[in-house]
What does this fold into?
Amino acid sequence: MSSTPTTKQRRGARPHLAGRLTEAIKERLRSGELGSLPVMLSLASIWIIFVSLNGNFLSPRNLSNLSVDIVGTGLISVGIVFVLLLGQIDLSVGSVSGLAAAAFAVLNVRQGMAEVPAVVIAVAMGTAIGFIHGFVFAKVGVPAFVVTLAGLLGWNGLMLYILGASGTINIDDEGPVAMLTNFYFHYVAVAYGVAALGTLGYFLVSLQDARRRRAAGVPSRSLGEIGVRTAALAVIVFAAAIVLNRFQGLPLALLIFIAVLVTLDYVLRRTTYGRMIFALGGGVEAARRAGVNVDWIRISVFMMSGTMAAVGGLFLASRVTSASTSSGSGNLLMNAIAAAVIGGTSMFGGRGRVWSALLGVLVIQSIASGVALLGIQAAVQFMITGGVLLVAVVIDSLSRRAQKAHGRV
It folds into this structure.
């Protein structure tokens, strides 16, 4: 008798890729490893609702404006992600962003300093403020909540002081800082080239990661799964490129934002420093026994938060080409924190990615954009955002409980 297996037997021996992916997803859901699934579903639902109410929501102009509007708050939220990974909070980022914008405007406009050194000083100021917060928290032992709450008040007061009686300083609307949010790459090849490079880079990094994990004898993604993920990413980024090219092209602000996300994602997931942050977020005493310099990691994380707040403040000033007493105020702080949490960063520490900032701020800004198009009161935007934030925190809590049940926390 022939021992050659039948087609049905071969299929039984090697499950279809779709079946393996389905089982992997089910296992992740059962164990509480939800990843970015909840925020992706929320974003899709929000877009479907708003486009059904106003077809202009998905117009190239609106989506292009949306891609620029997310950058300032998104950059601030990236710094918040680093702090949340330690299970801490930074309430000063709104005031720090406003202070950085005011410092730049005063140095450039009133003191006549060139824009580049003025930008460097403004960003360095944010880094120094982060160092102060981190030092008081790590070395003195004052809770981060109290330290940064004092910073929220103090740095906002300093911003008002240096702006003076005028209260508003207009910056050069054709200068480098203004161009951060007003420059577009009109050549269609730029957007498509960035999309192609991003897709290829993701595929190669995923392939290398899978090979390294297999060599170490730990579970890894199959080539088929990597291919499916790469194809899904390609659809998203090339669709974005098509939409952006139908308006004014790829915005410089969005390109810078993506570059920052890629760089800091590498820092968090591929470097010793990033692993120490996750270790410290998982447990202070365990991290200390493993040789982690707890105080330095804490200080450096708040320095990162201050730096990103200053950079985000400059992008927000670029968007309105001015610095004023309202810079860094309003709902900026809450939006930055909410974006990190809605995007999937745990408030309990030890779990999250910098891409959470992108996904979360997309949700928040999509709500704001949709409400504005419909002519609804801003109060409705706050209520919707608050509801989405509450759902995100509930999901985070339930996910953590499931992880504890599976021995993963």
Summary: DSSP finds 17 helices and four strands in the chain. The mean pLDDT is 87. The beta strands are 168-170, 184-185, 250-251, 322-324.
